[in-house]
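Exercise 7. Predict the joint structure of the components listed below.
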Amino acid sequence: MDLAPYLLLAGLEGLVEASVLMLSALGLSLVFGVMRVVNVAHGEFYMLGAVGGWAIASLVPDHPALGFALALLIAPALVGALAIAADRGILRRIGYDPEATIVATIGLSYIIQQVVLMTFGPDARAVEPPFYLNIRFPWFGYSGYKLFIVAVAAVLVGALWVGLRRSRLGLMMRATQFDRETAQNFGIPVGRVYSGVFAMGAMLAAVAGVLIVPANQAHYLMGHDPLLMSFVVVIVGGLGSIPGTIAAAVLIGLSDGLMSVFFSPTLAKIVSTLLVALVLVFRPQGLFGKAETRA
Amino acid sequence: MIRHNPRLFALCLAVIAAVFGAQFVLAGYPVLALTRILILAVFAMGYNMAMGYAGMLSLGHALFFAAGMYAAGMASRYGAVGLPVAFGIGILGAAAVSLGIGLLALRTRTVSFMIVTLMFAQVGYLLTLQFADVTGGDQGLTLSERGFALGPVAVDMTSGAARYNVAAVVFSVVLLGLYALTQGPVGRLFAAVRENPERTRMLGYDVARIRLAAFVLSGTVAGTSGALYGLTFGFIGSSFAEFRTSIEALLYTLVGGPGTLLGPVLGTALMTVLIDRLGGLTAAYPIVVGALLIALTLWFPKGLLGTIRDRWLPWLK
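Solution:
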């Protein structure tokens, strides 16, 4: 029996998973890096992106491409607005206390999930892909849309990377990350940077959600796994390190596909969760991070 | 022991007297509800040892609750031991699990500690699902052993009154035991580690050991509650190991007042009654929990008794 087609298929599926994971984990990592808080509602922002994408796409029933394009623009913008409201209304008022933020965002995730359940319902909903393209491999055909996800994710991450390194806004974000008080003294509007970063993190998760809906489906509980996996990626990659996050997303996305071939899904989850907890205990800087350099 | 804080001691005795007296005025469903409140209050009091007194916010206490519940339940179901022995095994099981997890998790602090405890608890939950042929998984297991002999007296755990009095006895013992611990030198050490670990270390105390002691105490009391819950109601299941269980302990403690002895008891009672009353609106229950978590962190971080302590009654600690 030839193993090549299986490996190719697992590799392709892993690559798609890795790109979505990369977007969602980068959002979490960005928020942690700049604001030093963990957003437990991150998975719900991903879910809101997917559900919002479905709602917007179903407003334009006859033109899947147009509906999808609108969803990709509007759903993340709405999620970003919600994130800004959460930042102004909750996080800022508790002074970004790391423990209180976790408790409050757990509360936020309960509310979002339940409101979506009560409005959107418990069913999974499908969205038509914006285009149908079957890419022929020698052994099987593969959805061109899924490869489009990979391309969009790569472009977005590249843009984010250049933006952080080259733009004035990126400089302000890095300055805030490096030393909040000095940044404030130099006239950087730290409060607005925080709101912006929190919104950007949420929007990255929402974009990932919109992108995945045509390939999977939208469901009110779909935020759980990405939250856990994003945690895994961010911890393995080193909390707050963007290159580490990207490397870890690719590694984990690819290996997750292979793991679930060999183990039962529950056992795979047990092993990966345990390993990640141990990484956090024994190597808190992550596998790719350097030892603590910043205060 | 009494002289450390006589007013709080008197209040604890009053609470215990009210608990035992309540069965003469209440009957039927309220007794059952109160039984659950007493058992879950033990869980919240245990959680409060780590979170309130020693300042270690764990998101994984479902693991210790479940460890006690499964150790006791499995011993009762497969081990052919009586209920009191199974209860003891449950407590020991929770102590062992919290010691193991404590040695690992306490290498981290604050945010990492929260995530690590959450992940270990998730592993425990998944393990109960993975080994469903032994644990019963999602479906759970019913325990057939429903009575034990206390000297000449046969206690029948299918009777509501017996369950209530067993729960009330365990609750009282835990409450008085924790009173003795928290109001004496040990409680001061916990608070010292919470408020200023560097200075505590400078004064010659082993901070790591104090933290571990608080964590194991906390996990063991939580597990005592889990063991009691399983044996009292004759049922153990994976749903008790879920993340939601950890959040419940956190919520009860936050509502009542972290770092106050009776706060978690009050929080458990209020929240359980509130959820009961919301019975018709069960769909809205997570929204209430979520909104409360946010509101408490925003406006009321010290909880009910914590606020009363700071404003009026400094002995309420």
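Discussion. The CA atoms of residues 33 and 272 of chain B lie 8 Å apart.
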